[in-house]
Amino acid sequence: MAMTLATQPRLVTLEGGEGAGKSTVLAALREEIAARGDGLVCTREPGGTPLAEQIRGLLLDTHHEPPTADTELLLMFAARAQHVAETIAPALARGAWVLSDRFTDASYAYQGAARGGDVGFIADLERRVVGIVPGLTLLLDVPVDVGLQRARGRGAADRIEGEREDFFERVREGYLARAAAEPHRFRVIDATRPIEAVAAAARAHLRDYMAGLA
Ligand code: Z5A
To answer: pTM to 2 decimals?
Structure first.
C-alpha cells in the first residue's frame, strides 16, 4: 500500500468536461508518442482492465438504483487501484509511456468539486491506493453549454452525463482550480476552437514537455 505520491514522467493524462474533444485529441497524442518508439499503452478511466471496465459499467449504468456519493467515489478508486496495479505500473516499469483518458484529477473534479465529496478523503485514497501522479496533464477546457451541446448530439446519456448543468459547472471549476494549483503539471487548452486546432495545441504541449525531459 503506497503512502506517498510519486510523479511518473511517462504518465500523461487527458482531462476535461463533457464534449471537450478528448477522444479526438487522444488519437493525435497517440501518434506523437508512438513516433518515439519507446512503447505506448493507451488506456482510460474508469476502466483500463477487464475488472475495471466492469466497474465502469456499474458506474455509468442507468438501470439499477443510483450509487450514493460514497459508493461512486469508492468504485472510482476501486477501478483505479486495479488499473494502476494491472495496466499502468507494469507499462511504466518496462519503460513505456502511458496515455490515459482521465485519471485521479477526474475524481477531484467530479466526486470532489461537483458532488461535494470530502477532498481530504480523496487525497487519502490517492496516496493509499494510487500512489502515482502524471508528469503531464492536458486539460481541455470548454464552457459547459458548448460541451454539453456537443456531447448530447451523440445520443443517449449515461448516468453521469445525465447530471444537471450546474454539476458540470462545478466540474469545470474543479478542474481549473487544480490546474491553477499545479501549473507545472497542467497545460490548459482552449477547446472551443475547431477540433484540428485543439489537437494541434495538445500535440505541441506534449512535444514541448517531452523535449524538456530529454
Ligand atoms: N468520471 C468520474 O466521475 N470520476 C472519475 O474519477 C473518472 C471519471 C475517471 C466517463 O468518462 C464518466 O466518468 C465521465 C466522468 C466520470 N462522465 N461524464 N459525464 P468518459 O471520459 O468515458 O466520458 P465522457 O467525459 O462522457 O467523454 P466524452 O463526453 O466522450 O468527452 P470527450 O471524449 O471529450 O468528447 P468527444 O467524444 O471527443 O467529443 C464529443 C462530441 O463533440 C463529438 O461528436 C465530437 O466530434 C465533438 N467535438 C469535440 N471537439 C469538438 C470541437 N473542438 N469542435 C466541434 N465539435 C467537437
So the answer is: 0.96
